[in-house]
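U., I forgot to send this yesterday:
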Amino acid sequence: MSGLESDDIETQWLAIKKLQDRLTEAHFPYIKRFLLSKKADPYVKSLLLHIIKEQGFTETLSLYKFGQVYHISLRTETLFYGEFSENVRTCLSDVLNSENPTLCNFAEQIWRHFTITAYPRPLHPLSVNKWAAACCLYTAHLNGLDFRFSRRASEPFVSSFD
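Result:
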């Protein structure tokens, strides 16, 4: 469990991967310290929450991220924004997949990484279209593409590349 106390992200990640199949109550003191650590990587913390929930534990855990402490009930909490996140991915696919499947895949990966890292911080505004549009713009920018939106009544947003 010393890997969780490391400042190195890869070492943290490897410690969590080792826990994935053999997590027990005995690990929880280390896990609780890790989740409250200011040095631990926010993405890795979220992955650990996912592993704990996946293993069937229903604890309420405290998590330090973004200068705040959040209390996560694994019994009731849907991790990583649940249905909202899936709706954003569907919107990304609906808009990008036929025009640029590679960019669509990249945008979905960026969205997934963002939601895992940002969780449990509330997303504002809670608008599928706005988050999908922001993700499209960011993904296009990373790929050096000029990306434009136009509105149609029947679609959330329509993209075009110049």
